[in-house]
Design brief:
The chain has about 550 residues and is of the alpha/beta class. About 25% of the residues lie in helices and about 25% in strands. It folds into 2 domains: about 5-270, Ribonuclease Z/Hydroxyacylglutathione hydrolase-like (Metallo-beta-lactamase, Chain A, 4-Layer Sandwich); about 295-485 and about 525-540, Ribonuclease Z/Hydroxyacylglutathione hydrolase-like (Metallo-beta-lactamase, Chain A, 4-Layer Sandwich). It has 13 helices and 27 strands. The radius of gyration is 23 Å and the shape is globular.
Length: about 550
């Protein structure tokens, strides 16, 4: 993957009240969120809004552009002017330069949307690259971010997304910041402006190719609710500029209307009718399958010879409901080499580091396999690479030159179907039938027959639906297998995490996805299923009805 940190001035919009800064990413078939056929350069943007004696920066760009972004901002933001940062997503293309910007400019706050919850990981942004420590606050439509008494930013739930994502509207300039939506417009060279206007053509085929590459779930979804939510955003606001985090800013009412209609047209053409299904009784897991194991089990836990489950649980409240959810990682030790599946949550780094030191017992860590580039799965990657100089990153690493450019020579791409021999046991990298990001992979450990499934098959335990202020579970319960829990997970507990982690599950009939899962299990029979979020599953056949019912419960009707 090629990037450009070409030193080019920021694009000045709205009479100097808005600036588009950042670098460019070459479209050459090696970026996970762009169509393979796309060619040109995609702007990777940060947006600086200035008003009198303060400013707000929407997203911070990728780490590969750190020096460029900081330099541009230093020429735009007057010396001593306080700057707030708003993050639309907790993905590495949005948060990559929080540290460098905070070190060089007067950053007085970092904000994200919504309420604190354990799934979006915004609270871990400050520690992801271990450069600075900043508090991440929250903003919503009821609590806007103010630039002045007469200018504030409205925070919106993104109607089209993959992970937890928030859009922002600046009424003063008529700018809608759309994060990873509307990022379809590329430029021919990194010398080009980062904007398109009323004079530029909008090609519906380009829009469609981008949407299918980035949001592939729309081809299987009833998109009517998404289209209605998108229409409400645009109908209720006078939008002069659409400002995506990646892709050209769209400037001018006619241009905005053309690109909006193109997106709505694609969503309408791709929409699939909802499959009518009758009422489904809640399945039950046979209590006879429960074991008489001890009621407590801390982590780490040995799952099979050479495979250890480690990490910790996040303890939060979602609305008025207390939740307790795993942020797990897994260490696989072969005779020759070792591999870590996911990196652990950034807030758990002290535990993860101590556990690895003890478990490796003088051995090095040879491979790191982040299932996808989201903070709970890749948030400790830079720390691990710094701690273990021989470690290499593997899996779908197409995007990682953008996120850890200092380690680009330690990135080894492995497409789905490839195999890594660790000595006495091997890891097979698999296409993920259930995923949130385009680059998500699963993996299968052959000796212990363990299937690592990233964000799939997760569930909370204890607390969901209770009246208490904290998750109601016994100390140490987080290390129990599914058959060792006092009771099997309910549909509600499983649906809660499904809805939070997999936005598309609200609109997609998951039956075809589970058919792919069952076909995969025929080829790779699993004794244990190891999700990132949820207790390790030791009775998948019995729990599959619960998992399927949870997806049916999430589906918007």
């Amino acid at each position: 993957m090629a990037t450009s940190a070409h030193v080019r001035d920021a694009d000045r919009l709205a009479n100097g009240r808005l600036f588009v800064t950042g670098g460019y990413i070459r479209a050459d078939g090696t970026t996970s969120w762009l169509p393979d056929s796309a060619r040109g350069w995609q702007p990777a943007n940060c947006y600086a809004l200035l008003e009198q004696d303060r400013g707000v920066l929407v997203d911070t760009g990728v780490a590969a552009h750190a020096e460029l972004v900081v330099g541009q901002l230093q020429t735009i933001v007057p010396l001593g002017v306080p700057l707030s940062i708003f993050l639309t997503r907790a993905e590495l293309d949005c948060i990559g330069n929080v540290g460098p910007i905070s070190e060089q400019l007067e950053v007085d706050g970092v904000f994200a949307g919504g309420n604190t919850n354990p799934f979006d990981a915004f609270d871990a942004v400050e520690s992801a690259r271990a450069t600075v420590r900043v508090h991440v606050g929250r903003g919503s439509g009821d609590a806007p971010i103010f630039l002045s008494e007469s200018r504030s930013l409205e925070v919106l739930d993104a109607p089209l997304r993959l992970l937890a994502t928030y859009w922002v509207f600046d009424a003063a300039t008529g700018t809608l910041f759309t994060s990873d939506s509307f990022g379809h417009q590329l430029v021919d060279s990194p010398d080009s402006p980062r904007i398109v206007t009323d004079d530029d053509e909008c090609d519906p085929r380009v829009v469609e190719q981008y949407l299918l590459a980035k949001f592939g779930w729309i081809a299987e979804a009833d998109t009517a609710p998404v289209r209605a939510a998108l229409e409400a955003v645009f109908a209720d606001r006078e939008i002069e500029i659409v400002a995506p985090t990646n892709g050209c800013a769209i400037v001018g009412r006619a241009a905005v209307a053309a690109h909006y209609e193109a997106v709505q047209g694609v969503l309408a053409r791709q929409s699939r009718p909802r499959v009518a299904r009758g009422p489904q009784p809640e399945p039950e897991v046979e209590q006879a399958r429960r074991t008489s194991a001890p009621k407590t089990q801390p982590l780490p836990r040995l799952l099979a010879p050479g495979v250890t489950w480690l990490g910790d649980c996040l303890k939060r409240k979602e609305g008025d409901r207390p939740v307790h959810v795993h942020a797990s990682c897994y260490l696989v030790k072969g005779e020759r080499e070792t591999l870590l599946v996911d990196t652990g949550h950034p807030t758990h780094w002290p535990q993860v580091e101590a556990e690895l030191d003890r478990l490796l017992d003088g051995r090095g860590l040879d491979w790191i396999f982040p299932t996808h580039p989201e903070l709970p799965h890749a948030g400790n990657l830079n720390r691990l690479l710094a701690k273990f100089p021989q470690a290499r990153v593997t899996g779908d690493v197409r995007d990682y030159p953008l996120y850890c450019p200092e380690y680009v020579d330690r990135l080894i791409h492995r497409p789905a179907g490839s195999e890594l021999d660790l000595g006495g046991r091997s890891i097979v990298f698999l296409e993920a039938p259930i995923r949130d990001l385009p680059s998500t992979q699963w993996a299968y450990e052959s000796s212990g027959r363990i299937l690592f499934v990233a964000d799939a098959f997760g569930y909370t335990h204890g607390g969901v639906g209770s009246d208490g202020d904290e998750p109601v579970h016994l100390p140490g319960e987080c290390g129990l297998l599914s058959t060792e829990l006092p009771a099997p997970p309910t549909v509600d507990q499983t649906a809660f995490l499904t809805r939070a982690a997999l936005f598309w599950s609200r609109y997609v009939d998951v039956a075809p996805h589970f058919a792919k899962v069952e076909a995969l299990l025929e080829r790779y029979p699993a004794k244990l299923v190891a999700p990132a979020h949820g207790n390790v599953i030791s009775d998948l056949e019995a729990l599959l009805p619960i998992l399927k019912a949870a997806h049916r419960a999430v589906l918007v009707t």
